[in-house]
């Protein structure tokens, strides 16, 4: 068989993943027409690209990633943002104002301690990640709650073709944003729904390497809703 794994299967360093005209991506290498895993992680096939998502390790920033972070300090020269990485990120007036006045207005709105969702537009070994908020859907996150998961589990929170995030939005709250740095923000006026969502996100994080996860999460949500309702009924007979 040209491909020796199923998507999201755990593979070990040196394990043969594919043969033939497949390309090696992150976490894999090609040698003698064969693609091998270079790390312990989850194997993923996208088209002809074979990659391995590490099971452990910190978030490593990538240009184009959408991240959620907290403002550490702010001055007219720029802001420093905690993005749950070895690197802190920066927003400068120029990067927040790439397409005009709207970005500058967003830049002046951020205070120390506030959470924002932004996009990495520049990063290499010579400087820390630079962010922008000058795109639709980016900017300050008002209120809500923050949950941290391991960055490598983010693809499972999204799910295949968006199946998992669609389930969470339909069953719990549609006000949820996911950063590729493992930070998740959501907002709901229902404390019970909030507790259920936190429980479910941690379940996804723990069981990210297993199959049939979306179905199990759906059952868990149903069970937790019933349990919460029963508690309310007992308190208010």
UniProtKB/TrEMBL annotation:
UniProt xrefs under SUPFAM superfamilies: Eukaryotic type KH-domain (KH-domain type I) (SSF54791), Nucleic acid-binding proteins (SSF50249), Ribosomal L27 protein-like (SSF110324)
Keywords noted in UniProt: Cytoplasm, Exosome, RNA-binding
GO biological process: CUT catabolic process; exonucleolytic trimming to generate mature 3'-end of 5.8S rRNA from tricistronic rRNA transcript (SSU-rRNA, 5.8S rRNA, LSU-rRNA); poly(A)-dependent snoRNA 3'-end processing; U4 snRNA 3'-end processing
Single GO cellular component term: exosome (RNase complex)
Signal peptide stretch: none
Main function: Non-catalytic component of the exosome, which is a complex involved in RNA degradation. Increases the RNA binding and the efficiency of RNA degradation. Confers strong poly(A) specificity to the exosome.
Annotated HAMAP family: Exosome_Rrp4 (MF_00623)
Family that this chain belongs to: Belongs to the RRP4 family.
Complex and partners: Component of the archaeal exosome complex. Forms a trimer of Rrp4 and/or Csl4 subunits. The trimer associates with an hexameric ring-like arrangement composed of 3 Rrp41-Rrp42 heterodimers.
Name the record gives this protein: Exosome complex component Rrp4
Organism: Odinarchaeota yellowstonii (strain LCB_4)
